[in-house]
Design brief:
Blueprint (H helix, E strand, L loop, with lengths): L10 H6 L5 H15 L3 H14 L4 H13 L3 H14 L4 H13 L3 H14 L4 H25 L6 H11 L14
């Protein structure tokens, strides 16, 4: 899989859709600053402290999951995103980020299900539509590859598979908005 195809949604994007006061914006900015300055332990310490004070704070929990994912601690991030989908099924962003984690593991079937949940929560969520299209491309690529393996003499599969491979080349012109999920 080519991770650049799948878009995560950042804390900034989540905050735009929720009523979040300036306190979170300040906390989030400080935690992000620490994290991106290489002070990862301090960033996690700060987010943990704030979650201990405000355990139901969705943006803080979301931020922690994003930081975990960005740190390569995908299983922990996945657990938090999954719990957010249970606690707040009306929010599409945790489903989307969960789908990105599934897709990064090559689990396109679970990614599809998570994205469909995101779209049930918000049918106008463009990022989830884009990610779902990318997942469908990956599923089609896998199916064509399997069909070719089963029937190597079928001359119609090769060109389709080549086209899908071309579609999954990483984007190079402009970096995707990180939406600092």
């Amino acid at each position: 899989m080519f991770p650049s195809l799948f878009r995560t949604v950042g804390v900034a994007a989540l905050c735009c859709g929720m009523l979040v006061g300036p306190v979170f914006a300040d906390d989030s900015a400080e935690i992000n600053r620490l994290f991106h300055a290489g002070q990862v332990a301090e960033a996690f310490s700060r987010v943990e402290q704030l979650i201990a004070e405000r355990p139901k704070d969705v943006p803080l929990r979301f931020l922690k999951a994003v930081l975990l994912a960005d740190s390569g601690r995908r299983a922990e991030a996945q657990s938090i995103f999954l719990q957010l989908t249970v606690d707040y099924p009306e929010l599409p962003e945790p489903y989307n980020n969960l789908a990105v984690l599934y897709a990064s593991q090559g689990d396109y079937a679970r990614a599809r299900l998570a994205l469909e949940s995101a779209l049930r929560a918000s049918p106008v969520y463009a990022v989830a539509h884009q990610n779902l299209a990318d997942v469908y491309v990956q599923l089609a690529r896998q199916s064509y590859a399997e069909a070719l393996r089963l029937d190597p003499s079928n001359n119609t599969i090769g060109p389709k598979l080549a086209l899908l491979r071309q579609l999954t080349l990483p984007d190079t012109p402009s970096p995707a908005p990180r939406g600092t999920p």
